[in-house]
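INFO batch 0412 | record 1 of 1 | parsing
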Amino acid sequence: VDLDTGHVEVTRLVSVNDVGKAINPQLVEGQIEGAAAQAIGWTLLENFIQKDGRTLTPHLSNYLIPGVLDIADV
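INFO prediction complete | emitting tokens
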């Protein structure tokens, strides 16, 4: 977190998982990376706003999700 601007950048993310015997290691890796990207999105970008029972962010243009540049190496 840049204390002057408030800009937040994810520079590193560590994910620890016990998957048992992986039948398809590439699929497991993809699931882990996808979950990490989703966690970053929930934490830093995604914002579902409601007020007085109305949704104020009804379109994907105002509901941000992480792109490849927002995600650190997992």
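INFO post-check: The chain has one domain: 1-74.
INFO record closed
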